Amino acid sequence: MQDYSICLICGWPYFEIYYVASVRTQKEIRQRAPIWLVALLVTNLIIMAVDARDADGRQKMLRVWTQTFASPLQNASSKATGATSGFFQQIWNFRSTARENDQLKERLTQVETELHIASQSAAENERLKALLNLNEQTNINSVPARVIARDPSVWFNTITINRGSSSGVEVNMPVVTVGGIVGRVITVTPWASQVMLITDEKAGAGAVVGQLGQSGALGSVRGRADLGVGLVEMRYVSGLEKVENGDYVMTTGQDGIYPAGLNVGRVVEVKHGTATQAHQILIQPGAQFDHLEEVAVLLYHPPPRSVPEQTPQNAERPRR
Q1: What is the bridge-based pairing of β-strands 142-150 and 158-161?
Q2: 175: left (phi over 0), alpha (psi -120 to 50) or beta
C-alpha cells in the first residue's frame, strides 16, 4: 500500500528505478555471500590460531609458527647485517691503519733526521778536536774555521772561510786539516778570508820525499790544470834520489809559508829521471779537497831569514 502510494505520488518512472535498484542489491548480496563466508572462516581461523597453544599450554602456536618461518629470514638478515657492518668496520680499520702508518712514517723520518744531525754533529766535534790537537803537534797556535764558499770559476782552487783579521788571520798564513796542508790565505777581511789551495797552478810549497834531514829528494809541490783537485805535482826532484810509490811527502819550511814537518800527501806515480833529468812525481794530497768542511788556520810567522854580510868591492880589506 505504501509503495503504491509512493508510486501514485511520484509516478511510474520512480517505481521502475526503485525496483531495478532492489533487484541489483539482492543480486550483489548473493554474489558476495561466499566471499564474506570465506573471510569469516579465515578470520575465525586466525583468531583460533592466535589463541591456540601447544600441548603443554605454555606457548601460543602462532608465535611458534611465526618464529619457525621467520628464523631463516632472521638468520639471513643477521648475516647480511653482520657482513655489511664488518665491511664498513674493515674500511674504518684500514683508514685508521693508513693514518697510523703515515704518522709512523713521519715520526721515522723525523727520527732519522735527528740521528743524521746528531751523527754530523758528533763527526764535526771529532774533526774540531783533531784540529785543536794540531796545536800540540805543531806547537803553533791555530784558529778553527768553517768552509763557507767555493769558487767554481777556478776549478775549486780557492775557498772562503769564516775567519778573518778579527780572529788574527793574516795573508800567507797556512791553512791545514788533520790530513795535511790545504793552502795559504791570499785575501783577508774582518770576518772572512780567501784561501788558495795547493792544487792551484800558482800555489807552491817546499817539500821533501821522506823525512827532512834524512832525504835529499827536495822539490816544490804545486797544482796542474789537467790534474784537477785529486792530484798535485812535485817538481825539481833530482833523478838520482830514490823515490817510490807510497812514499810520504812533508813540508820543508823553506818556502816561508808552511812550517816544516806538515804532511803534504803520498806518492802515487813516479816516472824516474836520470842524472840530468828530474823525476816526474804525482802526489795524492792528504787533505780531502772534495770534502772540506772544517780547516785550521795556523797563526804562523816564519822566522826571519838571516841576510849574509856582503863586503863592498871597494871596501878596504883588513891587513894581515
Answers
A1: antiparallel
A2: beta
- For the structural domain made of 142-298, what CATH number should be given? 2.40.10.340
Name the band, by pLDDT with cuts 50, 70 and 90, for residue 267: very high
Q: Over the stretch 10-28, which tens digit does the pLDDT of each residue have?
A: 444 544 555 555 555 666 7
What's this model's pTM, rounded to 2 decimal places? Answer: 0.59
pLDDT per residue over 41-75, tens digit each? 777 667 666 555 555 555 555 555 666 665 666 66
CA distance 104 to 112: 12
Contact 273, 281 (CB under 8 A): no
Q: 10 Å Cβ neighbour count for 247?
A: 17
Task: Write down the pLDDT at residue 1.
Answer: 46
What residue segments make up the domains of the chain, in order of their start?
2-51, 142-298
Name the phi and psi angles at 109, rounded to 5. -60, -40
Of the candidates 242, 293, 250, 295, the residue with the CA atom closest to the CA atom of residue 272: 242
Smallest Cα–Cα separation from 206: which of 258, 129, 164, 170? 258
Element housing 285 (H / E): strand 280-285
CA distance 223 to 156: 12
Mean pLDDT computed over 165-182: 94
Q: Is 304 helix (H, G, I), strand (E, B) or coil?
A: coil
CA distance 281 to 244: 9
CB 60 within 8 A of CB 53: yes
Calculate helix-pair angle for 2-10, 12-51, nearest 10 degrees: 130
Q: Give the model's pLDDT for residue 156.
A: 57
CA distance 263 to 222: 14
